[in-house]
């Protein structure tokens, strides 16, 4: 009887012993984040309702599964510049074009502006998360900006399916590259000014 029991159990024990133990993988090094002009990464075309996912695809998804503490300085500068380009598009493109339009055209531009707000705030928050991972205290600022982001995501979702129009023009199209070039000039000049964490993130001047 004992022999029969061992004969049936031993193969099972051998199988369990041979099964590899799952290894908890640690987050790896983050990839380089490439600089893009505003026209290449704007999300205001199409329809409302999915701005959160579209903005995440630009600023958040490229860092999925990696350790934000490993984001390099150039990538962080590129993110700041692109967020600033989205903010410039709001003030220099969307606002005057909405003022000049009426009816359905104005409504569609306004929806596009909300999607652009989601984009710029998502970029700002991701910069703050990276800075936090690298040792800066950004918790209060991140909480403040997350409240603004949640508000604009809700506004976008409330208009789901409605036409959204991107603002066109040159005002914000090359702002990202220009901002990085300006930063490089400042570095070459040996600027030693001390800036706050929010300034390092590219302070968002939007009220909501």
From TrEMBL:
Keywords: Signal. Residues 1-18 form the signal peptide. This is Small secreted protein. It comes from Kwoniella dejecticola CBS 10117.
